[in-house]
Amino acid sequence: MLKSRKVSLWPRRSGKEGREPLVREKSLVMKGSPSLRESSAQRPLPSDKQATSGPDDLSDEEWNRRVLAVLGEFLSSPGVDSLSVRDLLWEWRRGQAEQRWGSALWLGQFQQRVQQSVELHFPSLPAEVSATQQPPQPSAYLRQVQEVVQGELLRLAPVLKEAGLLGTVIDRYHTHTVGQLELLLQKNLNADQTFTVLEWTLQSYLSDSMLRHPELAADVQVAADLLLLTNWIQKAKTKLLSVAQGYVAGCLQHPEMEGRGGLRVNGLQ
Asked: For residue 201, what are the CA distances in angstroms to 100, 155, 160, 187, 233?
């Protein structure tokens, strides 16, 4: 595991207007990250008189660019100090007291950074093979997907939830995951491999360790397009039935094929 780099994002100011340092409590998720339960409690926004344009009196445009750049690095690299990023976002929210979410342009740029991060971290699909060859077993790829999605969401959640930005990350990871499952389903999978993909989706992706994780479930319910997943599940069931029927028909015509295509549907609902 990479160790967090303790990066100071700006010099701390002293006096009455200085920021109070955050208490660095032990993370419940991973080393170097604040607990989601600790950080999710919304701190009250200051009054207009207390609001500030940011460190060193930057303009709003410069301030927003700085936050976007730091978030881009935080999304892409686990080595960035999450406590410093959370501190920066808190200061940014103070300056955005009237427009907490920032401008639509800024949000669009943040979504682009998130999508770039998702594509950077997400594992590549198994290599293409000829129509006469069987593709590699999808179970190894699905384990990689689970490690990435689970690990990144739990790493980012404690920092981004409080700033109201976690929903975008959940949406992008969920949409990309379903898209990759769609591409995986289009490969030359036999009945057993198709069942493996469908089983993983129903029993792992929708489990308490991923989308229904206690630290993520409430935000997933709001941010993730679950209808997108429902439609994919129906497609997967249809393909499984078609592949299984083809396998059975082939076995009836060529008994020597029995056992080659794989047929495992027990427990599928």
From this structure: 36, 22, 26, 17, 8
Give the CA count within 13 Å in the CB-facing half-sphere of 38.
15
CA-to-CA dists, residue 80 to 4, 32, 73, 74, angstroms: 6, 9, 7, 6
The pTM is what? Answer: 0.72
Please provide the size of the chain in residues. Answer: 269
Q: Which of 94, 88, 95, 74 is CA-nearest to residue 10?
A: 88
Q: Is the dihedral of CA 62, 66, 72, 75 positive or negative?
A: negative
Q: Which portions of the chain are predicted below pLDDT 70?
A: 1-58, 95-102, 128-135, 246-269
Residues 3, 32: contact at Cβ < 8 Å?
yes
Which residue, chain included where needed, has tokens 């955050």? 22
Measured distance CA(178)–CA(171) in Å, rounded: 11
- Residue 12 forms beta bridges with which residues? none
Over residues 90-107, the pLDDT tens digits come to 888 776 655 545 578 888
Report the alpha-carbon distance of residue 161 to residue 85 in Å, rounded.
12
User: pLDDT per residue over 18-67, tens digit each?
Assistant: 444 333 333 333 444 444 444 444 444 333 334 334 455 667 788 888 99
Cα–Cα distance between 181 and 227 in angstroms, integer?
15
- SS3 (DSSP) at 80: strand
